[in-house]
Backbone:
């Protein structure tokens, strides 16, 4: 028999659907040409013919027929007397095609070739896997839970490739059962003992970003951009969004009607609280928004040291800090400022406050808007700052600021 059964090796190729047929043929050809070089010293006059459907292979040797005694290269030429023994009709000058019997290589050489082929196929499959998932880093995928261990979960994708979800990349409330499908984002591709290990994550900000992209068409279309995401997995997340279209409210679009868009994400993240805030380049306003749901009274900002002292009413301090300090920690990460929270101890004077929008009949709306942009959205927050401080922070004239403060003071005196 002049062929070698390679069905098992070809089956490996078939299983690895991403390996194309030309690549398969090239690998098989390379392996057996190496075998030919070991036996004959050269492979130029040999053709390796692969039949992938049947799983077999043939090697054809080509030699030119020359006159007896004129053979200069035994690998490329054959004497006429030797050629006619194979086929009487041959003539000098013709090319002789002869099938090489695999048994001539010996059992050991054939076994080594099959092992080399299996190894090459394995390497190809690894390379395909690495390229596939290296290109998908940051993308969300769905995979089936195959095995649950103490420190990690083994998952299988639609092609049966193994993926790893470490404990450190799981939300604390995550609980998985074999056979269920879960969503995660591709975090990185590691190499361990020359084997690719695909690491997934459910705790990274990218996972939340991709979930938002799926749920909010405006993000997918590029009308709304996510400026920054900070997370304490399973506890709270803060998302700063910005719209490129003035007609679109980025926060409203992300939350959806009655929270319809955000609810699905919250469920996926095991009831993680998600604060979506409107991004602004105004540092004071960004800090104020980042401390949601707490409402601040006023703040003292040091841009050089990137530090802010935030003052709040007694009942707002715990909201600003949050459970286990999560809220203020995330606010610091989102704004890039070190925030210190203080209780506003001004006794009875601080028992009530008035929203600046209540003064629209006495103060021009554009003046109120200018004050709100620097975080002064209540009468107290304006009066707590000096005329010079307000003049420095806003574009308002000194006389305008004095007049505004007079109106606000009169209102409190009435009270």
Residues:
């Amino acid at each position: 028999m002049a062929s070698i059964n390679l069905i098992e090796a070809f089956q490996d190729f078939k299983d690895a659907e991403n390996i194309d047929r030309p690549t398969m043929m090239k690998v098989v050809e390379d392996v057996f040409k190496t075998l030919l070089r070991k036996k004959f010293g050269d492979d130029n006059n040999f053709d390796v013919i692969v039949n992938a459907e049947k799983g077999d292979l043939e090697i054809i040797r080509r030699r030119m027929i020359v006159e007896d005694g004129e053979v200069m290269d035994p690998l490329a030429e054959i004497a006429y007397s030797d050629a006619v023994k194979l086929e009487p009709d041959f003539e000098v000058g013709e090319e002789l095609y002869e099938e090489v019997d695999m048994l001539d290589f010996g059992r050991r050489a054939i076994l080594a070739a099959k092992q080399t082929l299996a190894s090459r196929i394995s390497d190809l499959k690894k390379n395909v896997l690495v390229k596939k998932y290296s290109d998908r880093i940051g993308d969300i995928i769905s995979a089936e839970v195959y095995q649950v261990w103490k420190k990690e979960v083994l998952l299988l994708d639609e092609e049966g490739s193994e993926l790893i979800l470490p404990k450190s990349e799981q939300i604390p409330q995550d609980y998985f059962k074999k056979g269920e499908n879960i969503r995660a984002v591709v975090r990185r591709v590691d190499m361990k003992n020359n084997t690719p290990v695909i690491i997934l994550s459910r705790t990274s900000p990218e996972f939340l970003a991709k979930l938002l992209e799926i749920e909010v068409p405006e993000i997918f279309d590029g009308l709304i951009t996510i400026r920054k995401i900070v997370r304490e997995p399973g506890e709270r997340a803060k998302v700063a969004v910005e719209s490129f279209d003035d007609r679109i409210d980025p926060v409203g679009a992300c939350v959806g009607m009655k929270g319809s868009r955000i609810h699905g994400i919250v469920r996926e993240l095991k009831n993680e609280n998600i604060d979506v805030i409107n991004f602004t380049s105004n540092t004071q306003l960004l800090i104020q928004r980042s401390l949601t749901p707490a409402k601040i009274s006023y703040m003292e900002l040091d841009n050089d040291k990137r530090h802010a002292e935030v003052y709040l009413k007694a009942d707002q301090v715990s909201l600003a800090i949050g459970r286990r300090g999560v809220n203020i920690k995330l606010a610091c990460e989102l704004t890039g400022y070190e925030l210190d929270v203080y209780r506003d101890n001004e006794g009875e004077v601080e028992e009530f406050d008035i929203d600046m929008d209540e003064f629209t009949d006495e103060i021009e709306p554009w003046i109120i808007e200018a004050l709100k942009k620097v975080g002064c959205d209540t009468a107290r927050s304006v009066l707590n700052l000096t005329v010079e401080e307000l003049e420095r922070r806003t574009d308002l004239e000194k006389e305008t600021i004095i007049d505004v403060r007079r109106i606000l003071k009169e209102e409190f005196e009435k009270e």
In short: Residues 107-134 form the longest helix (28 residues).
